[in-house]
Amino acid sequence: MSGTPETTDGKEITQKMDAFRARCHEAGLKVTPQRMAVYRALMETDEHPSAEMVFRQVRRVHPSISLDTVNRTLLTLSEIGAAFIVEGSGDAKRFDANLGNHQHFRCVRCRRIVDFHYEPFDRIAVPENLTGGFTVLRTTVCVEGLCDRCRLQES
Ligand SMILES: [Zn+2]
Ligand SMILES: [Zn+2]
């Protein structure tokens, strides 16, 4: 990313920021610079960061922001559907602003979470006895194992 304004990346970021602004308005949320910065930091990475990781990033631009604010903002993003919490593993919550169909590979050693997309996983059916009593919002597939880096260390 060179920062030239006409790259596809630049355009995509602008579009996503606009969509986020619209989503905030719809949800009756104020669009504050801090909120925008938290969203942007999350949207620009594919590392599925924790609140702490987002905090370290946003603090460079907003030195007065607190971890608590970042944490609450991330939870708010999840509530309005601008991001989601990657299904739990007992560790600190990890967040994802990539709302497109995709699945996660989670490394059990270094806790890396890597996106992949395998189309058949998008179409996994939920059993009827579940949908009878519960409202299903999302189904996810998460694959766990050792990532390439950790496997190299092993051998
Ligand atoms: Zn790993
Ligand atoms: Zn993801």
Q: Largest beta sheet: what is the strand line-up? A: 4-3-5
- End-to-end C-alpha gap: 34 Å
C-alpha-based Rg, rounded: 17 Å
Which regions are unreliable across 5 or more consecutive residues at pLDDT < 50? 1-5
Q: What's the rounded overall pLDDT mean?
A: 90
Question: What series of H and E elements makes up the topology?
Answer: HHHHEEEEHHEH
Query: What is the CATH topology descriptor of the largest domain?
Result: Arc Repressor Mutant, subunit A
Question: Can you tell me about this structure?
Answer:
The chain has 155 residues and is α+β, with helices and mostly antiparallel strands. The protein folds into two domains: 8-95, Arc Repressor Mutant, subunit A (Orthogonal Bundle); 100-154, Ferric-uptake regulator, C-terminal dimerisarion domain (Dna Ligase, domain 1, 2-Layer Sandwich). It has seven helices and five strands, in the order ααααββββααβα. The protein has helices at 8-26, 33-43, 51-58, 67-79, 119-122, 128-133, 148-154; strands spanning 84-86, 94-96, 103-107, 113-116, 142-145. The strands form two sheets. The protein has a three-stranded mixed β-sheet with strand order 4-3-5, with no helix packed on it. A two-stranded antiparallel sheet has the order 1-2. β1 and β2 (94-96) form a beta hairpin. α1 packs across α2 and α3 (51-58) crosses α4. The protein is globular. The structure holds zinc ion (2 copies). One zinc ion is lined by residues 107, 109-110, 112, 146-147, 149-150.
